[in-house]
Amino acid sequence: MLKQTTNQLGFQSINKGYNSVFRLGRLSLGLVVPIETYSSGAVPSMVRHIERVQLAEKLGFSAVWLRDVPFNVPSFGDAGQTYDPFVYLGLLAGQTERIALGVASVILPLRHPAHVAKAAATADVLSGGRVILGVASGDRPEEYPALNLSFADRGERFRNSFEYIKRMSEVTPVFENIYGKPHGGMDMLPKPVSGKLPLLITGGSQQDTKWIAQNGDGWMIYPRNIAMQTQIVCNWRSQLEELGRPNQPVMEPLYIDLVEDPDTPPLPIHLGLRLGIKHLKSYLKLREEIGINHVALNLRFNRANIETTLKRLANDVLPNFT
Predict the structure, then answer these.
(1) pTM, rounded to two decimals
(2) What angle, rounded to 10 degrees, do the helices at 85-95 and 113-126 form?
(3) Which has the closest alpha carbon to 58: 27, 91, 29, 98?
(4) Separation of alpha carbons 249 and 292, rounded Å
(5) What digits encode the pLDDT tens for the residues 166-219?
(6) Nearest of 76, 92, 109, 122 to residue 31 by alpha carbon
(7) 17, 194 in Cβ contact below 8 A?
(8) Fewer Cβ atoms within 10 A, N terminus or C terminus of the chain?
């Protein structure tokens, strides 16, 4: 069993990526890939995608986040970065040096956990321990029949997949669940750099909050109004304490359309806000105060030039959250 340690900033110490992104009482900022505007359709161009990730690293963003979108489902309306997240993680591992590489999130019931564990550990090793693995049960029913899988029992398969992935960090693990029965001294290589992968659970993932608090290394929650988000975070940390588990980080995504006038008040857009930079800083500071530890900004609906927006964020927002 791995020895539980705590980093100098209050959370458990797992790997380089996790330790740099999540700090108790502080908020860091990342970006959702693709780092581009594609509001008029579901499929991004992926223009200058490596260059923009490298720019994000140079400017001081703490993480980039890929998504697991196996199929371009018309009703969903977003194909994500289009590339397989694990293949793309391998490329980014070789094209960056410091920035954390996250997936938000791998849809566990659609993949065999042995493949997830192998691919994620490989990317972690290639990146020097910078992978953060978000996991979810999936919310697009159309994908399941394409793989001849049931949507209804995805919660059970999520739990079994989660267990399988965690056990693959052990040396010659012996266990049995619905995904298989490793035996006979077989082992999976490589092992993650620090001995385990950080696993962050997204939303409910068809589980109750006690299971999430008992098993995850952090929680990805959707943006909500400040009063509701405050209560959710407080309840989460109280449950962790009751269970005797180490404190865990909480992160949320946020779509933004950053306008030129810094005083422009926030207007709702899909899962986010159109606003000026002063109001963005206020929004983020409130999240930091209630215990949100990371916000992943999504620029899909951003109407201004992407490079200009990244530099504005780096100059005017990042210094407040370092």
Answers:
(1) 0.95
(2) 10
(3) 98
(4) 7
(5) 999 999 999 999 999 999 899 999 999 999 999 999 999 999 999 999 999 999
(6) 92
(7) no
(8) N
Domains of the chain: 16-317 (3.20.20.30)
SS3 (DSSP) at 230: helix
Q: Dump pLDDT digits (tens) for 248-299.
A: 999 999 999 999 999 999 999 999 999 999 999 999 999 999 999 999 999 9
pLDDT at 178: 97
Tokens at 169, concatenated: 């960090």
* Angle at 138 (CA atoms; ends 132, 140), nearest 5 degrees: 135
Cβ atoms 224, 238 nearer than 8 A: no
- Per the structure block, which two tokens stand in for 15? 């790997």
Distance between CA 254 and CA 212 in Å, rounded? Answer: 22
User: Rounded to 5, what percent of the chain is helix, strand, coil?
Assistant: 35, 15, 45
Cα dist from 184 to 137, 173, 187, 192, whole Å: 31, 10, 9, 22
Give the pLDDT of residue 20.
97
Q: Cβ distance 101 to 64 under 8 Å?
A: yes
Q: Hey, CA dihedral for 52, 53, 59, 65, is it positive or negative? A: positive
List the structure tokens of 199: 């696993």
pLDDT at site 2: 38
d(CA 8, CA 23): 9
